[in-house]
Automatic annotation (TrEMBL):
<keyword id="KW-0378">Hydrolase</keyword>
<protein>
    <recommendedName>
        <fullName>Acylphosphatase</fullName>
        <ecNumber>3.6.1.7</ecNumber>
    </recommendedName>
</protein>
<dbReference type="InterPro" id="IPR020456">
    <property type="entry name" value="Acylphosphatase"/>
</dbReference>
<feature type="domain" description="Acylphosphatase-like">
    <location>
        <begin position="15"/>
        <end position="103"/>
    </location>
</feature>
<comment type="similarity">
    <text>Belongs to the acylphosphatase family.</text>
</comment>
<dbReference type="GO" id="GO:0003998">
    <property type="term" value="F:acylphosphatase activity"/>
</dbReference>
<dbReference type="InterPro" id="IPR036046">
    <property type="entry name" value="Acylphosphatase-like_dom_sf"/>
</dbReference>
<feature type="active site">
    <location>
        <position position="48"/>
    </location>
</feature>
<dbReference type="Pfam" id="PF00708">
    <property type="entry name" value="Acylphosphatase"/>
</dbReference>
<dbReference type="InterPro" id="IPR001792">
    <property type="entry name" value="Acylphosphatase-like_dom"/>
</dbReference>
<feature type="active site">
    <location>
        <position position="30"/>
    </location>
</feature>
<dbReference type="InterPro" id="IPR017968">
    <property type="entry name" value="Acylphosphatase_CS"/>
</dbReference>
Amino acid sequence: MDGNDWRETMNQQETLHIIVSGRVQGVGFRYHTQFLAKQYNICGWVRNKDDGTVEVMAQGEKKEMEQFIRGLKKGPSRFAKVTGMDIDYLQQQEQYRDFRVLY
C-alpha cells in the first residue's frame, strides 16, 4: 500500500442531498429509506417536508450509494409511487455516524 491509497478510498465516498417526490408520505417511505441505509452502510438522515416530498441526506461509498438510490426509486410498497428525484452531489462536510429518521 503506498501513500496515495487513502485518497482513492476517500474519493469513493459521496455525500448526496436527495428530494424525493410523488406519493412518498404516509406510505412507510422514511422507514424504507432507513432500512436501505442500514443494508448499504449509508449514514445520514431522512425527513418529511411540508410540501409533501421527502428529503434525504446520505453519505456512503459510491457503489453502495447507487444501490441505495435504486432502492429509493422502487419505494417501500405498491402504495408508494416515486415520480421524481432531485439529487445534488455535495462536498463532504459533516460526517454522519448513523442513519436517522427525523421528525
